[in-house]
Automatic annotation (TrEMBL):
Function: Acetylates the N-terminal alanine of ribosomal protein bS18.
Encoding gene per record: rimI
UniProt keyword terms in alphabetical order: Acyltransferase, Cytoplasm, Transferase
Protein name stated in the entry: [Ribosomal protein bS18]-alanine N-acetyltransferase
Enzyme Commission number(s) of this protein: 2.3.1.266
Catalyses which reaction(s): N-terminal L-alanyl-[ribosomal protein bS18] + acetyl-CoA = N-terminal N(alpha)-acetyl-L-alanyl-[ribosomal protein bS18] + CoA + H(+)
Amino acid sequence: MQVLKLRRSDIKRCAQLEQVLFPGDDPWSWQAFAAELDQGHYYVGAYLGDQLIGYAGLAVVGRAPHAEAEVHTIGVDPDHQGRGAGKALLRALLARADEQRATTFLEVRTDNETAIAMYRKHGFEIVGLRKRYYQPSGADAHTMRRPAAGTETGE
């Protein structure tokens, strides 16, 4: 598996995976992915050969020492989950955030224990709760934060 910059030709595959991964919570369309790329956000894909098996995106605003990054999405094909693709995608996003010395934020469903554990292992802590964040399901989300690399509390 390789993590590479997401190819524009793969955004339809991303939207297909969204339908599978987030059926009850307004999955992103290919147009949403195209808009993210058009805005210059950082997107990577996990590839087995030419096959896209996962994707992840990050937005960075501001400049060090006040830069902030937000993980917009991470998704892995269910047939390939549990094999390190999600971890590799997250690490690629965090490397980009670290280049900018950005504090990184994300939201995660409160019932997604696997993702929460992965984020904790990568230095994130829960800092807030967003009630009914995911729609239309109404699921709650934790807001998690990872300090900027090189800070007193960062890696």
